[in-house]
């Protein structure tokens, strides 16, 4: 990819069309046919060039939403069809790796092109600063993604010519420092907020959140906590009252989201959540390609804050409920009891047995289990043997009908995530301090859950924070990075069976030791022999 993107200065900018709607900042102006000599002359050129950065980000999100934003590679959701990253049999030359690498370096090249050309354009100072800030933000953001997935990578701070694109890998520390520098400069250049026509652009708060994430990933806990705390205290972001509204089209551009990917309901410019997260009763007849696991559902506490435990429930015969006995799931009263009086986020994120779902034609369907395919008002999932389904990111009713093109913005950073990252970092600095309790409790209180119990030590608090991140952020793609940076991915994934909630085995998961980092794509090593491969690949 690097070899290709260096042949012509704007080659990559000329192959895409930027999306828009009538009041969106992403004007659909094609860059096809523009030459290097005829571009970078006006403020409009600068804005169009910057919009290409957002398009690359959208391209990556589009590529991974089919994997539940990569939560499918963890213990909380899974692919309905076998894929190498779920079974532990993905070769280093898989296109998934090379495509992701290419998208990130494409974005970096575009950012570097902007940083080289925009300073010389005669244009308004505010838009110039914003454009340069967006370029620094996205360059740092794409390097963060490369660092997270691939580890050490080559650093490029210019729009490279072909003979300049054969650098060896920098160290991970150098990549981390580069990201921090970019996000610091982006924080200084970007505005705090935008008028309606520019909603969705990166703000200084997005840059600060990403700098905090870089510190957290590097285990620089004091620096991470300081960045997150500053954002919490000084930004205009706030937790919304209704958790479920965060993941509905009606909740787009809400006050909790710090940075997201913007979509519209138009062929080629929407998001395929309704297909991949959605179910057969929705207006778009989703495929349930990604499904929540029983482990995730069982992680939601009782409404009083005590852990959920099957040992506290009985089956139809009065015996302890056995989740691995399909017969125990056949009694309606017994099964209903399992999902009553639980953390409200469970039913807001997941369709469970004996809950309802409003599908196509505004019909309310009831998830009877065992599944009754003869009842026209019964919810019939794609997988009828005992499957949970996502409610998160799945629209109800029939307002939107483009299966692969929902106008649902996808949150990449939201305030609840920042608050929990602050709690995590602060807990490493001051174990189980009151500030840590306050942060976690703020997220729990919004959900309708009681405060954490007093008397936790640092280790216990760490586990509570990790559980809180799991249930709060499920389906948003955060856990794949979390379990890898915590070093627990192999423990919670490798050798574990994907199962129906009835205990029936579907497929065994795999997470070899070398899966903590993705392989450097073999195609890139072939082009640039200075690149070395990650261990185990």
From TrEMBL:
<dbReference type="InterPro" id="IPR012944">
    <property type="entry name" value="SusD_RagB_dom"/>
</dbReference>
<dbReference type="GO" id="GO:0009279">
    <property type="term" value="C:cell outer membrane"/>
</dbReference>
<dbReference type="Pfam" id="PF14322">
    <property type="entry name" value="SusD-like_3"/>
</dbReference>
<keyword id="KW-0998">Cell outer membrane</keyword>
<comment type="similarity">
    <text>Belongs to the SusD family.</text>
</comment>
<keyword id="KW-0732">Signal</keyword>
<keyword id="KW-0472">Membrane</keyword>
<dbReference type="InterPro" id="IPR011990">
    <property type="entry name" value="TPR-like_helical_dom_sf"/>
</dbReference>
<dbReference type="InterPro" id="IPR033985">
    <property type="entry name" value="SusD-like_N"/>
</dbReference>
<protein>
    <recommendedName>
        <fullName>RagB/SusD family nutrient uptake outer membrane protein</fullName>
    </recommendedName>
</protein>
<dbReference type="Pfam" id="PF07980">
    <property type="entry name" value="SusD_RagB"/>
</dbReference>
<feature type="domain" description="SusD-like N-terminal">
    <location>
        <begin position="55"/>
        <end position="211"/>
    </location>
</feature>
<feature type="domain" description="RagB/SusD">
    <location>
        <begin position="256"/>
        <end position="537"/>
    </location>
</feature>
